[in-house]
Amino acid sequence: MARTTPEEALWEIDQVAEYLRVPKATLYTWRKRNYGPPGARVGRSIRYDPADVRQWFRDQVKVAA
Fold first, then answer.
1. pLDDT tens digits along 32-44
2. Does residue 40 sit in helix, strand or coil?
């Protein structure tokens, strides 16, 4: 069985909120509005690929520039 490193592990909503420095409630609101970094349900939780979160952030910076 392959082991994932911390860099490859999926992020929980707390980790995404900390990375983006926004409240968790903001991420839930964005998700309802089809905005924000892409995430997927795993059971009852939402998980995020760190690479997708970083790419989403880079895309936001490009739009603002």
1. 999 999 999 999 9
2. strand
